[in-house]
Amino acid sequence: MAEAYIVGAVRTPVGTRKGGLAQAHPADLAAHVLAEVVRRADVDPAAVEDVILGCVSQVGPQALDVARTAWLSAGLPESTPGVTIDRQCGSSQQAVHFAAQGVMSGTQDLVLAGGVENMAMVPMGANVGFALEHGLALFGDDWTQRYGDQEISQFRGAQLMCEKWGFSREDLEAFALESHRRAVAAIEAGRFTSEITPYNGVTQDEGARADTSLERMSQLDPIREGWALTAAVASQMSVGAGALLLASERAVNEHGLQPLARVVQLDVVGDDPVYMLTAPIPATQRALRKAGLDIGDIDVFEVNEAFAPVPLAWAKETGADLGRTNPNGGAIALGHPLGATGSVLMTKLVYELHRTEGRYGLQTMCEGGGQANVTLVERV
């Protein structure tokens, strides 16, 4: 099987819903990172064989195959096609998988993967609005026969995890505070500068709060009465885009590219759709087993902080070191622009491996429907 290499990775800053990126058209935002990753790799854009972007809410300005419209908006060759995919929060991580698999299969040599989401312009859930407006069920009779008419939501799933693993509100808030602390430290140290391409005058991530505290978090109302969850321990709704260029060894040699990382293992696993957010646990275990690696072999983990109990339960079950997990803060502090987050996390992971001279990195994300992707990479 052919090897797949990441030869370019770049992201926009992750903006808040009322920040400097809120009015950026998603296609323009994605166009910016697509053009920039091609420019940084110094490769002929006509050599790119496909563009695969993740985007969750594919309505309005995020409709009409935003991967294709973004590529064309960037002024890049019409000969390169594009496709937009939805694996919920893991959409752009799955885009990286599809790109890598195209390269590893030997059928493609140079593929762009990434994602975009503007949650200020296209709110979360906008793509299910038609069903709700017309009184149509989101789940059919067969689903109801299997799972009943119980609530299926990320919020309930996160609370169920708190109850199953015994996490208190204080546990969640301590984790959230550390996420902000790490993110603020990373921003102040300039750790993200080289991976970020500024947009509309925004040069750094907008979500991290230097002034937050356990006391301030304790004053927030829970999402529901009696729950451990509050807004402080959940990811922020955000705006952002990211792009990675995947190449075969042949393309590396032909175009004189400089690999940043080698793709070691790709996996995606399904788990309980009611708990919804637990799949990173079995996905990580299986990916490591397939790769012949142990959890202790991994130098850096990027685990999406959709809610604090997700990485906490994942670490408890896998034995992963939380000190190596999201070392520069996670989505609780930096934000979670849905379809873009997978590419943002992979970009962060690759750059952090180079900064620390680590060898192996692992990325995983919980996803709607009770799914999770895992990507293992090795620094080159």
From TrEMBL:
Annotated Thiolase N-terminal domain residues: 5-249
Annotated keywords: Acyltransferase, Transferase
Enzyme Commission code(s) on record: 2.3.1.9
Gene3D superfamilies for the chain: 3.40.47.10
Residues annotated as domain Thiolase C-terminal: 258-379
GO-annotated molecular function: acetyl-CoA C-acetyltransferase activity
InterPro entries noted in UniProt: Thiolase (IPR002155), Thiolase-like (IPR016039), Thiolase_C (IPR020617), Thiolase_CS (IPR020613), Thiolase_N (IPR020616)
Family per similarity comment: Belongs to the thiolase-like superfamily. Thiolase family.
NCBIfam families named among the record's database cross-references: AcCoA-C-Actrans (TIGR01930), PRK07801.1 (NF005865)
Name of the protein this chain belongs to: Acetyl-CoA C-acetyltransferase
Protein species of origin: Lipingzhangella rawalii
